[in-house]
Design goal:
about 0% strand, globular, about 325 residues, mainly alpha
Length: about 325
């Protein structure tokens, strides 16, 4: 089965600046297939290029991995017809397959695109050139435990790095605040490793299928999950800042967050969107009206959203 083209999703997640929590719809250009060495944006790889890579270049591998999973599950598919959650349409099922492919793909530093994902994260968070060495102490500065980040990426696979790149790219201000929080003398925590734990929560939530109705209503899956990942970071930062806790309390905090994301993920998203909307209003040009252009665009997009839409044209959702 050919993969559904995700160019609309790719464009919406990459084109807007990180300060714009609500993207607008518009004409979308076809994603150019490029080697990592040809990536723009000062050498950083984009989220669109990552999705394009897994969509087009690893489709066969994805089918093999998923078929092996199905074989292990035995009669899980048959039992699935009795699930309390609705089945995803083909478009969203394809997005789910791509997400799970990344969740099953081990990080390989000899694979150029894998290394470039980590290098882009390092450059965006710590500054400096993109082409940092594949091994070294500089990875511990980012919050990994080892000089070889592949050891710490075993739990969340390449998806852990992809989610972290999305966070530091599209919510740069929040990511910078969280990273500064992680390096405080008192109350420090391993930035990258905590992000890997959040990715594992997302994987469990997708496989649980409890958000299927929400995915269907919003006509998207990957962008919902990426926003949910950022919402977890936002909630984590709130807890870590307001409570006098340290690394010894990290397990308790992550357990609390995992409960929230498994039981009430939509509430977590709503809280995050409200905070982002307030931030946009606060930082908007004072010469403009109290309602920023971004928020007005968001409302216009919401009114135009049609249930008959056959493609992923809208990439923020309305709760």
């Amino acid at each position: 089965m050919p993969l559904y083209p995700l160019k609309d999703l790719n464009q919406s997640l990459d084109s807007a600046p990180f300060t714009e929590p609500y993207r607008r719809r518009g004409s979308v250009a076809k994603i150019e297939k490029r080697r990592p060495s040809q990536c723009q944006n000062n050498g950083h790889i984009s989220f669109a290029e990552i999705l394009s890579h897994f969509q087009n270049q690893e489709a066969c591998r994805m089918q093999k991995i998923l078929s092996e999973q199905d074989a292990k599950k035995g009669n899980a598919k048959i039992l699935g017809i009795f699930s309390q959650y609705p089945k995803l349409p083909r478009v969203l099922e394809t997005e789910k397959d791509i997400l799970l492919l990344m969740a099953e793909t081990r990080y390989d530093r000899t694979e150029p695109i894998h290394l470039l994902i980590l290098q882009s994260i390092h450059s965006k968070v710590l500054g400096g050139p993109v082409r940092c060495p594949a091994l070294g102490e500089h990875w511990t500065d980012l919050g990994f435990n080892h000089k070889d980040p592949s050891v710490d990426l075993n739990s969340a696979k390449i998806l852990g790095a992809v989610c972290l790149l999305f966070f530091v790219t599209h919510h740069q201000s929040l990511a910078e605040s969280v990273y500064r929080l992680s390096t405080k003398t008192q109350g420090s925590f391993p930035f990258a490793l905590v992000g890997m734990n959040f990715t594992r929560m997302l994987i469990r939530l997708v496989r649980k299928e409890s958000l299927n109705r929400h995915f269907i209503r919003q006509k998207q899956l990957i962008s919902v999950m990426m926003d949910l990942y950022c919402a977890i970071w936002h909630k984590f930062a709130q807890i870590w800042q307001k409570t006098e806790i340290d690394l010894l309390d990290l397990s308790t905090v992550t357990t609390t967050l995992e409960h929230d994301i498994m039981v009430k993920p939509i509430a977590l998203l709503s809280q995050f969107h409200r905070a982002q909307k307030k931030e946009v209003m606060r930082t908007s040009n004072p010469e403009e009206s109290s309602e920023s252009a971004i928020v007005r665009s968001f409302k216009r997009t919401g009114l135009k959203l049609s249930a008959s839409s056959s493609s992923l044209r809208s990439h923020k959702y309305f709760l």
